[in-house]
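Input (structure):
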């Protein structure tokens, strides 16, 4: 009886760790949306013509404010209750400030370069390495293990990894609900493995992150009433990267490549984008374009309402894109959860995922999209795969 009661209390506590950040994040995000008339001249994304712009009207792009607020309130409540995990939450948020503030300043001023945002994210990663011992000290990769075996090498690899994941989350932030749901799924995967190894603190903050992200998600998807912006994307990228790094650093039974497998969709998207721009298009790797996988799905897979001018219809088509990529994300998370303690199996799964990604990309870009993926409206029946 006591055991059952104790389990019920544990379940209730875990639900609170998810629901409190969700409520605060959703409330703050709603207030940001309703106060757009005050700050919209600074916070709204009014550029509707860029190669990666698929929204119908200008909306605030400071969604990170609600998520940060939700996690901060969660940390304060945990601290007031004397919970041991409060310290981890406060330090995570403290370390995230350089990345979060640099991204948010870019959202407000449009004057912070990608290089400066990456440097700020690296500063956040260095702070986490110092305050939370969040460093990559093993990889199971010959040669690289020797590098991370030194203090300087471990720090450099950690900075590169965290900045890379943050930039990767920002890259896939192109459609309503895309990056926020993917990050939620990644954090759930980390929470599950943290539970498996008995790390309650990491599990709690992974679940709190899920709650905070979903508080933003309900206003972002499907209507697109607010966007993550660079502040929100870099904050989420930093947060999910640090949870993964700490899980590996604290538990040697977890494969050091588990975190990479969890984040492989945005990470591989970034690596493939750099390769595509530099070696295929002979363009600067940081030059934006409109042929990411999610962009191609929007243009060539979703035939519904092509050319529509109505804002409501354009928004609906925008939101129909994300579920395709959620499924792609889940194809990496499923094997990660099955083989979280086996580096050989994870290496194999990474290779399979990469092959599937490249194969799918080239089929779509060459107008050979699998027919089961194509969504046609009534006006598109009988058309061929020639949408550009």
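Output (sequence):
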């Amino acid at each position: 009886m006591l055991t059952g009661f104790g389990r019920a209390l544990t379940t209730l506590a875990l639900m609170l760790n998810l629901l409190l950040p969700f409520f605060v994040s959703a409330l703050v995000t709603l207030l940001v949306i309703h106060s757009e008339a005050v700050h919209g001249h600074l916070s709204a994304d009014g550029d509707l013509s860029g190669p990666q712009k698929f929204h119908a009207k200008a909306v605030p792009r400071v969604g990170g404010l609600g998520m940060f607020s939700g996690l901060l309130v969660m940390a304060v409540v945990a601290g007031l209750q004397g919970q041991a995990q409060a310290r981890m939450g406060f330090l995570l948020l403290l370390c995230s400030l350089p990345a979060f503030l640099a991204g948010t300043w870019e959202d407000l001023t449009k004057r912070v370069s990608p290089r400066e945002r990456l440097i700020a994210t690296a500063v956040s990663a260095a702070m986490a390495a110092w305050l939370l011992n969040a460093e990559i000290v093993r990889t199971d990769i010959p040669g690289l293990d020797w590098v991370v075996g030194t203090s300087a090498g471990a720090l450099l690899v950690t900075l590169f990894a965290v900045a890379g994941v943050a930039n990767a989350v920002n890259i896939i932030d192109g459609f309503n609900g895309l990056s926020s749901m993917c990050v939620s799924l990644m954090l759930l995967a980390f929470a599950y493995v943290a539970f498996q190894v008995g790390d309650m603190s990491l599990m709690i903050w992974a679940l709190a992150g899920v709650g905070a992200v979903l508080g933003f998600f309900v206003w972002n998807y499907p209507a697109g009433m607010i966007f993550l912006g660079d502040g929100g994307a870099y904050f989420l990228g930093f947060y999910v990267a640090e949870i993964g790094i700490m899980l590996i650093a604290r538990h040697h039974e977890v494969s050091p490549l588990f975190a990479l497998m969890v984040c492989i969709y945005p990470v591989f998207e970034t690596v493939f984008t750099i390769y595509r721009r530099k070696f295929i298009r002979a363009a600067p790797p940081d030059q934006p374009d409109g042929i990411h996988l999610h962009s191609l799905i929007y243009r060539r897979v979703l035939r519904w309402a092509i050319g529509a001018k109505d804002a409501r219809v354009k928004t609906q088509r925008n939101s129909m894109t994300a579920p395709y990529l959620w499924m792609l994300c889940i194809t990496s998370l499923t094997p990660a959860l099955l083989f979280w303690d086996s580096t050989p199996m994870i290496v194999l799964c990474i290779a399979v995922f990469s092959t599937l990604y490249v194969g799918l990309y080239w089929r779509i870009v060459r107008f050979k999209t699998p027919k089961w993926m194509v969504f046609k409206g009534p006006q598109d029946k009988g058309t061929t795969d020639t949408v550009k």
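Notes: The chain has one domain: 2-380. Residues 2-380 form one domain.
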